[in-house]
C-alpha cells in the first residue's frame, strides 16, 4: 500500500513520528514524505533537514510560502500552495495520503487534491480552536477526507455532526502520546549543557498570534512581553519561536527584543525537535503560552499549563490548565499559582493506549474499500 504523508511544519512532523516509525518498518506500506510549508523556510529552521536524517526513501519538497505574514501574504501563500499541489497531484498518486491538524498550508494541499480524487486520512479532526482561523481549515480538511482519526470521543461526536455520517470516523487518541510511557528524556546534565541552560528552574514558553481578530495581536504581543519580562526575573525562560501564522512576526519581534534586553535570562529555540522538546517539557517547572502541546501533551508529563487567550478555546482540557486572559498581570498571577501547585497528578483526556497500532489496523482493514 502506497502512503503519502503531508507534513507542513516541525509541529505536525513531531506528532506523526510514532506512527511514521511503525509504518516505515512495516512491509505492507511504501511511504513517501511530502514536505512543504515552514519545513522549507530558512527563517523557521529549514526543518526538512531533520526529516532527511530519519532515512525515508522518498521525500518530496514543495516550497510555496511567502516571507511576509500579513493577511494578504497568508492568502497568497494559500493560493501558491494550491497551485504547486495541483502540479504535484497531477504526477503523483497514492492509495492513501495522511494529513494532520489544521494549518492553512495543510488545508491548501488537501483542497488541491479534491479534483484528483485523492484519498485523505485526517488526524486530529473534530477539534475546536475558537481563537484561530485554523478552526475553519481543520473542518475543510475533514470534509475532504475519507478516514478520520480523532484524539478523543468528544471530537468524534463533533466530527460525525459535521460530516453527517460516522463512516470512516475512529476515536484512537493522540498519536503523539502513543509512546509516552516509554519516553526517556535526555539526561539532565547533558541536556542543560547542550542548550547552555543555567542550573535552575525554567518555564517552557510558546506564544502564537490569535488569527481570529488579528488586529488585536499588537496589544497581545505587548502584554506577553511585559509578562515575560517580569517572570524572567524569577524563572529562566526557554522560548520556542512562533510558527508562520498571520502576524506571527509581531510576537517574534517582541521576543527577540526581550532576548536582547535580558540575554542571561532567556533562551530562544527555533526548532527543538521532538526528543529535545519533550525533554524540555519533562524538566520544565510549567508551560506558558497558547500552543496545542500544552493542551494535549503536558498533562502526561505531570505539568501545569498557563494557557493564555482564546487560541485554544474550545479544545477539551485536562485538569492541569490555568486559562488566562491576554493581560500581563493575569498571566503573572497564573504563573505564580501554577508554580505553587507542584506537579500535576491527574489523567490526560487525550491519551488512549495503542493509538498508532489502532490507526495502522484501520488503514489495513480499509485498504480495499477506500
Automatic annotation (TrEMBL):
<dbReference type="InterPro" id="IPR003331">
    <property type="entry name" value="UDP_GlcNAc_Epimerase_2_dom"/>
</dbReference>
<protein>
    <submittedName>
        <fullName>UDP-N-acetylglucosamine 2-epimerase</fullName>
        <ecNumber>3.2.1.183</ecNumber>
    </submittedName>
</protein>
<keyword id="KW-0378">Hydrolase</keyword>
<dbReference type="InterPro" id="IPR029767">
    <property type="entry name" value="WecB-like"/>
</dbReference>
<dbReference type="InterPro" id="IPR020004">
    <property type="entry name" value="UDP-GlcNAc_Epase"/>
</dbReference>
<dbReference type="GO" id="GO:0016798">
    <property type="term" value="F:hydrolase activity, acting on glycosyl bonds"/>
</dbReference>
<dbReference type="Pfam" id="PF02350">
    <property type="entry name" value="Epimerase_2"/>
</dbReference>
<keyword id="KW-0326">Glycosidase</keyword>
<feature type="domain" description="UDP-N-acetylglucosamine 2-epimerase">
    <location>
        <begin position="22"/>
        <end position="364"/>
    </location>
</feature>
Amino acid at each position: 500500500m502506497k502512503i503519502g504523508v503531508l507534513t507542513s511544519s516541525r509541529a505536525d512532523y513531531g506528532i506523526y513520528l510514532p506512527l511514521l516509525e511503525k509504518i516505515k518498518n512495516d512491509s505492507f506500506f511504501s511511504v513517501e514524505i511530502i514536505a512543504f510549508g515552514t519545513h522549507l523556510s530558512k527563517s523557521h529552521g529549514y526543518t526538512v533537514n531533520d526529516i532527511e536524517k530519519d532515512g525515508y526513501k522518498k521525500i518530496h519538497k514543495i516550497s510555496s510560502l511567502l516571507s511576509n505574514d500579513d493577511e494578504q501574504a497568508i492568502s497568497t501563500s494559500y493560493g501558491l500552495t494550491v497551485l504547486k499541489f495541483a502540479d504535484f497531484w497531477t504526477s503523483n498518486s497514492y492509495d492513501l495520503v495522511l494529513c494532520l491538524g489544521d494549518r492553512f498550508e495543510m488545508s491548501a494541499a488537501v483542497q488541491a487534491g479534491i479534483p484528483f480524487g485523492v484519498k485523505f486520512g485526517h488526524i486530529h479532526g473534530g477539534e475546536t480552536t475558537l481563537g484561530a482561523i485554523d478552526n475553519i481549515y481543520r473542518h475543510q480538511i475533514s470534509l475532504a477526507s475519507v478516514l478520520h482519526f480523532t484524539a478523543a470521543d468528544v471530537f468524534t461526536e463533533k466530527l460525525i455532526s459535521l460530516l453527517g455520517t460516522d463512516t470512516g470516523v475512529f476515536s484512537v487518541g493522540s498519536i503523539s502520546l502513543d509512546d509516552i510511557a516509554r519516553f526517556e528524556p535526555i539526561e539532565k546534565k547533558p541536556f542543560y549543557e547542550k542548550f547552555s541552560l543555567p542550573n535552575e528552574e525554567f518555564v517552557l514558553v510558546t506564544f502564537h498570534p490569535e488569527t481570529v481578530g488579528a488586529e488585536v495581536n499588537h496589544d497581545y504581543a505587548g502584554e506577553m512581553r511585559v509578562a515575560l519580562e517580569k517572570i524572567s526575573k524569577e524563572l529562566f525562560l526557554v522560548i520556542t519561536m512562533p510558527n508562520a501564522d498571520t502576524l506571527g512576526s509581531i510576537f517574534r519581534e517582541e521576543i527577540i527584543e526581550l532576548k536582547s534586553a535580558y540575554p542571561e535570562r532567556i533562551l530562544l529555540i527555533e526548532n527543538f525537535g521532538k526528543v529535545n522538546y519533550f525533554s524540555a517539557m519533562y524538566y520544565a517547572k510549567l508551560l506558558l503560552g497558547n500552543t496545542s502541546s500544552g493542551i494535549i501533551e503536558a498533562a502526561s508529563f505531570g505539568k501545569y499549563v498557563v494557557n493564555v487567550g482564546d487560541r485554544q478555546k474550545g479544545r477539551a482540557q485536562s485538569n492541569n490548565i490555568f486559562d488566562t486572559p491576554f493581560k500581563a498581570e493575569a498571566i503573572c498571577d497564573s504563573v505564580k499559582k501554577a508554580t505553587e501547585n507542584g506537579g500535576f497528578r491527574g489523567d490526560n483526556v487525550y491519551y488512549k493506549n495503542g493509538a498508532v497500532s489502532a490507526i495502522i489496523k484501520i488503514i489495513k482493514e480499509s485498504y480495499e474499500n477506500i
